């Protein structure tokens, strides 16, 4: 699939890998073990952690996607 997207170079493979990592950061939810680590060690209840931490992971994923997208213009 990478050659069809024009990502068959080493740089393209690197950008694809980084973008997969960005996608894996999106929306942490209650079934994520790290969600419970954040909730329990910080002493925040589950509802507040769901609002704050899930929103933060969405922002992290979007910012990382945008960084990879902008880097692709200069690196490819």
How is this structure best described in words?
With 76 residues, the chain is mainly alpha-helical. The protein has a domain at 28-76. It contains four helices and no strands. The chain has helices at residues 2-5, 10-25, 33-42, 46-75. Helix 2 (10-25) runs antiparallel to helix 4 and helix 3 crosses helix 4.
Please give the radius of gyration in angstroms: 16 Å
Backbone structural class: mainly alpha
Helix/strand order: HHHH
- Major beta sheet, specifics? none
Question: Count of helical segments?
Answer: 4
Could you give a quick summary of the protein structure above?
This protein is mainly α.
Primary descriptors:
mainly alpha, 76 residues, single chain
SSE layout:
Elements: H1 2-5, H2 10-25, H3 33-42, H4 46-75
Helix pairs in contact: 2-4, 3-4
């Amino acid at each position: 699939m990478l050659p069809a997207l024009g990502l068959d170079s080493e740089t393209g493979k690197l950008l694809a890998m980084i973008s997969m990592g960005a996608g894996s950061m999106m929306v942490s939810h209650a079934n994520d073990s790290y969600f419970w680590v954040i909730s329990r060690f910080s002493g925040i209840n589950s509802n507040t952690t769901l609002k704050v931490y899930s929103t933060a992971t969405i922002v992290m994923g979007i910012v990382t996607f945008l960084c990879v997208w902008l880097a692709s213009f200069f690196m490819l």
